[in-house]
From TrEMBL, chains A, B:
This is Proline--tRNA ligase. Its main location: cytoplasm. It is an enzyme of class 6 (ligase). The keyword Isomerase does not apply. Its EC number is 6.1.1.15. Keywords: Aminoacyl-tRNA synthetase, ATP-binding, Cytoplasm, Ligase, Nucleotide-binding, Protein biosynthesis. Residues 1-22 are annotated as: Disordered. It comes from Methanothrix soehngenii (strain ATCC 5969 / DSM 3671 / JCM 10134 / NBRC 103675 / OCM 69 / GP-6) (Methanosaeta concilii). CDD domains: ProRS_core_arch_euk (cd00778). Catalyzes the attachment of proline to tRNA(Pro) in a two-step reaction: proline is first activated by ATP to form Pro-AMP and then transferred to the acceptor end of tRNA(Pro). It catalyses: tRNA(Pro) + L-proline + ATP = L-prolyl-tRNA(Pro) + AMP + diphosphate. It is found in: Cytoplasm.
């Protein structure tokens, strides 16, 4: 597939490649423009909250979800369950339905015939999958069972929708569901899930926070929820992954039991964990800049672009470029040679917009010296010998990955601050994330949210703190909570 | 992923691995049992016509659709469009809506709120995609545009449903849509589509028929439809791929125009072509036998299984088996070593059921001689030296592929017969496909269908025939039509 094919597809009233991008400082505007100009998402589909993936955006998504599959496949099995859930199954689990009933799309007619049983479009698939788990689980030998699916899910969002972030059709929800004999094994699985997700975001060079959500913000039906958040350029946080310990709540409702070794029938314990295309929103937002997308090597549809500098013996320049193209392709690098009629400057601009990690410039002087000029997407410029170029580029890609991560981490760190009081927390959450002493009483938590006018992300995981006074009641505590304005 | 993990997942009231499969002769029963026992599809989901993919079935599907992607990706771009189509867009194209209105699922409520505009779940995506094409196409330079998506689609089937064959949720519809400047270029694209699909079915070792559907059976809105059918074990045909020349029908409705080189605005010409999970139904049905699945090498989730024959020095046998496992894995072969407690006979039975192309048996006597015993899924048995085994197995897999195809082709040929009269056609379509002289008059065609009590698949493509009398009116014609009972 050659991506230059799509060069005109993003044009239209609101976009087009020749349009200059707003500065990233003006984040919301920049984000919307970049989705169109970078050919990620076309937001002109005639239903609010439902978007079209451009081929280039789809290719990024495919690479990103390829990493998720790599991380899960060693001990999870991919499956596929139906989209529609009959009303009676959907309505069985009381806490769960309470959490979702305002958001569910209902199918009520087939052709011109009203359906006897209304069908819900999955907002998430617990109520589709667990009636089948009841049939699949017989004995302790059937566990642990770990499955996942990547599917479209639907939520009738009444709030302002935003492409990739708040959608009515989530096109690519990766949801994993696991079944275990004991509560402890399920708790361990939640840790495993968070570890895998952490590895996933590290591979995308995206720094993140891990928090245990407060009880009033956990998944409907869960014992507890651990979540991953990313700090976006405007200082608001985006929840980009969650893992839920479901205990035996759904097992009771759907009668999922197993015969223990002593012959007794016991309820199973379950977890579920999910990631949606919000991971793409984070990817674009964290790394992009005023010039456009900046994609990590592993997920870039085009990893290297070769731009011939057509001076002097043009045929000779093109010949060298074609040689390089072939050599890099053979090395498994996703590479394009841009032989279009545009001037080099226009090509640089275009491929920077597309986030291509490494640009090669090849002109007569480079050829004379046996080198190529290498420009990384973070503007680092160097010269490399043509001999052994493929390996050198892979090493350079690693350096770029480290640089992307460092830049992102520096930004994230600059937006997190420990605070002691409600006033400080309010000021800090204007710009980022506040780390606030909290005694863990629910009452103090609600007061914090009200007074700070921000959300509690919950207790940071894998961290410990020295005692400080709860920002509400003043009681000494070694606990903290993250607070932020959330997407 | 280790498939033995799923060994108990297919159990239940109606299935389970220990159940003996009905003979393939009793095709309908055999098919339903095999889907469950072979762990392809769980048909116990509580909505008619909607099924769950078991992990093993999903893995087959993933490999099969991997071939489709390989065949399309060189000149098509993968995209993703929304599932829901607003009523006003859906209702624009009159012929099209007439073809689908009885089959469309309608979403009418979001939460407890009735929607202002009803939303159709795509039965196919022309009416979702073409309003966007209107925005994407500006000039002749934007064409040809070739995109595809693999998505779930929905049809409210009122006929008897059948897993993978007649579904209310088609989980994996690959639909391609192309746009061209001229009618002739679109016609060429239909030929390209049929060529790609032909290659696809050849790689699955499945023989097929290519026909131009009669005008009364073309896609709603198309100029013409070319279709691919497979003869199933019971002699009925299954339509497993279609390519439609849409002319400018949708271009008119959705105002998709381009600026020609002379500056004039012209209507585009379009095609679309699709394949659904019916390709998996064909795969299973054509190659399977009384012992279970028989999978072509390229799509088998497990290509080779190693069964240790634990006699004499058991540790030595296991050591050799583990060595082989590592060597074959390193060669990129999907291989399992079955070290479960079952006896070899039970293991043979299990992996034959799963359709594994090649089984290796390794016992003390094999080890002594430096060989392994190789049993192909078509029961060919041979001995191969351990030295250079990986390459030898790949060659053996090619022979197996040829054998699978030959067997399937012999069956298909035995079920096609040229006939001269309506009576002969009626007799032949009891058992298979009749090739009937037809003058191409619509009136004669309808009479043929009525009198033969079978469907007209249409005119065979890429074939020529000598003159014969139309089976209805007796007029001399060099045209034929396939006739068959269809799924």
């Amino acid at each position: 597939m050659t991506y230059p094919d799509t060069k005109n597809k993003g044009k239209g009233e609101s976009g087009g490649q020749s349009a200059k991008l707003s500065p990233k400082e003006d984040f919301s505007q920049w984000y919307h423009e970049l989705l169109m100009t970078g050919e990620i998402i076309d937001n002109r589909y005639p239903v609010k909250g439902m978007c079209v993936w451009f081929p280039f955006g789809f290719a990024i998504k495919k690479n990103v979800y390829g990493i998720i599959r790599q991380l899960l496949d060693p001990d999870h099995q991919e499956t596929l369950f139906p989209l529609m859930i009959p009303e009676n199954e959907f309505m069985k689990e009381a806490q769960h339905i309470k959490g979702f009933e305002e958001e569910v799309y209902w199918v009520t007619c087939g052709g011109t015939t009203p359906l006897e049983v209304k069908l819900a479009l999955r907002p998430t698939s617990e109520t589709a999958i667990y009636p089948m788990f009841k049939l699949w689980i017989r004995s302790h030998a059937d566990m642990p069972l770990r499955i996942y699916q990547i599917v479209n899910t639907f939520r009738y969002e009444t709030k302002h929708t935003r492409p990739l972030i708040r959608l009515r059709e989530i096109t690519s929800f990766k949801e994993a569901h696991t079944v275990h004999a004991t509560w402890e094994e399920a708790a361990e699985q939640v840790e495993v899930a968070i570890k895998r997700y952490s590895e996933f975001y590290r591979r995308l060079a995206i720094p993140f926070l891990v928090s245990r959500r407060p009880s009033w913000d956990k998944f409907p039906g869960a014992d507890y929820t651990t979540a991953i958040d990313v700090i976006m350029p405007d200082g608001k946080t985006l929840q980009v992954g969650t893992a839920h310990h479901l205990g035996s709540t759904f097992a009771k409702t759907y009668e999922i039991t197993y015969e223990a070794e002593d012959g007794e029938q016991k309820l199973v314990n379950q977890t579920c964990y999910g990631i949606s295309e919000r991971c793409i929103a984070a990817l674009i937002s964290v790394h992009g800049d005023d010039k456009g997308l900046a994609l990590p090597w592993e997920v870039a549809p085009v990893q290297v672009v070769i731009v011939p500098i057509l001076l002097g013996d043009k045929e000779k320049v093109l010949e060298v470029c074609r040689d390089l193209l072939r050599i890099l392709q053979q090395a498994g690098i996703r590479v394009e040679l841009d032989t279009s009629d545009e001037r080099p400057g226009a090509k640089f601009y275009k491929w920077e917009m597309k986030g291509v990690p490494i640009r090669l410039e090849v002109g007569p002087r480079d050829i004379e010296k046996g080198v190529v000029t290498v420009v990384r997407r973070d503007a680092e410029k160097l010269t490399l010998p043509r001999e052994g170029l493929a390996q050198a580029l892979v090493r350079e890609a690693e350096r770029l990955q480290a640089a992307l991560y460092q830049r992102a981490e520096a930004f994230a760190n600059s937006r997190i601050r420990e605070v002691a009081s409600i006033d400080e927390a309010r000021a800090q959450t204007e710009a980022g994330v506040a780390l606030v002493p909290w005694c863990e009483k629910e009452e103090c938590g609600h007061q914090l949210e009200d007074l700070v006018e921000a959300n509690m992300l919950g207790e940071p995981q894998y961290k410990s703190f020295s005692p400080a006074a709860c920002a509400v009641c003043g009681k000494l505590t070694d606990k903290r909570t993250y607070m932020a304005r959330q997407y």
